[in-house]
TrEMBL record, chains A, B:
This is Nitrilotriacetate monooxygenase. Pfam families: Bac_luciferase (PF00296). Keywords: Flavoprotein, FMN, Monooxygenase, Oxidoreductase. Belongs to the NtaA/SnaA/DszA monooxygenase family. It comes from the Bacteria.
Length: 455, 455
């Protein structure tokens, strides 16, 4: 039976687009990493298209590595800090949601709780926190660590961190403010609560010094695919950004995460699985392919070699582009995606040059990529959606705003024609538009004789 | 000889105004702590008046104490987080500067460096960081401490924190971005620098992942009056917010701080001493006094008793308003201001009731207060300015927007008539309007054969 809900859509943001050569596109605003106009434009296009949100990826570090390659690849080197950015963008828009990434490994929970609650108020209920525990050693070096803290430690801290933040967000019950000037009574003292959290990683008294926010609490996004990550997502996440590379794997991942929700008292409707999807669209397949080729042609060999080296965790500097790949530098085990590693190994074994391999990797590394006509892309999205492999997509557009404009112009009308995407926003808040339920304040629940929902 | 420069002015912001009863004023927007309209209005009035900045005071904690009193006194209980707030306000204004308070005791330097650099870009060069080490045990409880960390420890950490942030802000030299699409070169690798800070409190590698900001670096404000605070201000601050209660003390404080600047290679022009000034203005003295009386009459006895108890560090709950002050609860030594303590003790000894004492304290506790006609207030400001006790004032307006509107309507024309305040903004950035010099990037200075300016 066909689904009765509709697709959720978000715009994934690296400043210039997902492709490392995106900033060289003729339509790219090269000042976009430091002047708001470019990303405001992306937000306005997304909002006019009635997208659910704009998703600000982040890492609290510049990349470390081949200085020549990095000087040609701005994504991680120069970008806005995402919380300040979404705060600014949210007051210049009306309906679009904003997802900002912030790390539980390098922040204090009281600061995160305040920042997101404040932005939820400023935006009138359009804030979402993408909870990450960070990756890459380069982040740890900026916060007093000798590299990235171990995975188990990051997730243990992250899980407690989210608990503290949720607890702080419940400090004021939703109806705690009295605001009675005549009586001089501002809030009801019985509806303001002290958390008194004492855990392994954090001791936080509270209460949070800001009233309950318009969404009850900001929406929670997450991406972790590990066992600990899936458990945290099942317990707390409302948007899950997946990276699996085919329908079957995403379907299995969706089923796996959603099957874990019941034990936390959650409905599967309250978690939207949204795979990242790289879209290259053209009126014809050839036109779409030409857009891919343009970006790959503009990927400087230094950048391609560095990206490939990062993936393989092998030093490829100095390797000649017109020679076969030096087999002794190929690791025996994949460090990242197994599928990608096997593709690369097979390609290498066919005797291609390093230059050809870079090009092959650049095309493949677009993740869940699809290049084609509007019909082909709508078919792809519809198939994933109906199969339960996706509740929507986070569009990893190769270049901004060009690829976003293409999607809105070419694919969106086809999705709407099929009844798969909204004509107008259903609600005022991000939570309403995503069709998520309103969280229950734990103290209000206890007061009303019920049991506070486990978080 | 009369000064040739002009006054700098800022609007001090507790949400509803400096007076704890401000939210009960008829013009107060009771939703102002959670909806942007009110503070945007305050910003727009300040900008139309050509003020230099809006100053967001902050504490990362709700107040702890008498729940009945706190339920009547919203200032610390419910407020926007200041960094998200100024980010939003800055993109809705064009010329006004924004000062946000953030604590070196409870943040990570990499996060603060990113947030303020990002806001400096978003605002086009109108961001200022008010560096504080925090006060009150209540803040420590939210960050894993058993109360407020000791003063010496806070300042040692704070001083190193500022060094790290300054270092990170220099990561990209001002002309590091090449932005050459054709060559595929985004930045000049030789103009991006790794900090590699290894200190007692912090180890931070860097570089910061955002380009040099429009002001070279955000402006720095500070308020510390201790020896360590004055030394940090002389070394790093560009706005100093003083709290001394008379002209002579402010003059001595200004001279003291400014005399310490030479050893850091700084000109005294690069530090603006701006005392906080509580202004109650009316067309007549009686009208001005009536405004004070209105607020004091609206100060609920619970709030007054709690404030007085906080100052004396004495528990006054349950003390009857119509009885004399219980002398056994009066401490022998002042914990806060000595002058205030002596005023209170003399008043108590005269046999006044607790109710009268609260009223007396509420009037006196307005700090550098002046209540009077536009001429009297302009005389006061001019005298302080010409004596070198102030380079300008941070206006602690009792209620917002009413007292701000009064000041703009009544006092500002008189200041302008005397040539003491600008008719138009001189520059585009806060730094330009304050007449501060542009900081020199340490690496650019070294490259140019000079010696990097000590910070």
């Amino acid at each position: 039976m066909a689904r009765t809900d509709t697709l959720k859509l978000g715009t994934f943001v690296y400043t210039f687009g997902f492709n490392p050569a995106a900033w060289r596109h003729p339509d790219a605003d090269v000042q976009g990493a430091n002047k708001i106009d470019h990303l405001l434009n992306v937000a306005k296009i997304s909002e006019a298209a009635k997208f659910d949100f704009m998703f600000l990826a982040d890492s609290p570090a510049a990349a470390i590595g081949d200085a020549d390659a990095l000087a040609r690849s701005p994504t991680k080197m120069n970008r806005f800090e995402p919380l300040s950015l979404i705060s600014a963008l949210s007051v210049l828009t009306e309906k679009l949601g904003f997802v900002a990434t912030a790390s539980t490994s390098y922040y204090e929970p009281y600061n995160i709780a305040r920042l997101f609650a404040s932005i939820d108020h400023l935006s009138g209920g359009r804030a979402c926190w993408n909870v990450v525990t960070s990756d890459h050693d380069e982040t740890g070096y900026n916060y007093g660590f000798e590299g990235l803290p171990p995975h188990a430690e990051r997730y243990e801290r992250g899980s407690e961190f989210v608990d503290v933040v949720f607890g702080l967000w419940d400090s004021f019950e939703p109806d705690a403010l009295v605001l009675d000037k005549a009586k001089g009574l501002y809030h009801d003292k019985d509806k303001l609560h002290t958390l008194n959290h004492k855990g392994k990683h954090f001791q936080v008294r509270g209460p949070l010094n800001i009233a309950a926010s318009p969404q009850g609490r900001p929406v929670i996004a997450q991406a972790g695919g590990s066992e600990a990550g899936m458990e945290l997502a099942a317990r707390t996440a409302e948007i899950v950004f997946s990276l699996a590379s085919n329908l079957e794997r995403n379907k299995a991942f969706a089923d796996n995460i959603k099957s874990r929700m019941a034990k936390y008292g959650r409905s599967t409707n309250d978690l939207k699985l949204m795979p990242g999807l790289v879209v290259n669209v053209g009126e014809t397949k050839a036109e779409a392919q030409a857009k891919v080729d343009f970006l790959i042609d503009n990927l400087h060999p230094d950048v391609g070699r560095w990206m490939l080296g990062e993936f393989l965790e092998a030093d490829l500097s100095g390797v000649a582009l017109d020679q076969p790949f030096p087999l002794e530098r190929l690791p025996t085990e994949p460090k990242g995606s197994k599928a990608m590693f096997e593709w690369l190994r097979d390609f290498i074994m066919e005797g291609h040059t390093v230059g050809e391999l870079i090009r092959f990797y650049a095309e493949k590394s677009t993740g869940n990529g699809i290049t084609g006509t509007p019909t082909e892309i709508a078919d792809f999205m519809e198939e994933w959606f109906q199969a339960g492999a996706a509740d929507g997509f986070i569009l990893m557009l190769p270049t901004l705003p060009a690829s976003l404009n293409d999607f809105v112009k070419l694919v969106l009308p086809e999705l709407r024609r099929r009844g798969l995407f909204r004509e107008e926003y259903e609600g005022k808040t991000l939570r309403e538009n995503l069709g998520l339920s309103m969280p229950v304040n734990r103290y209000a629940a206890a007061r009303n004789g019920g049991i506070a929902k486990e978080t």
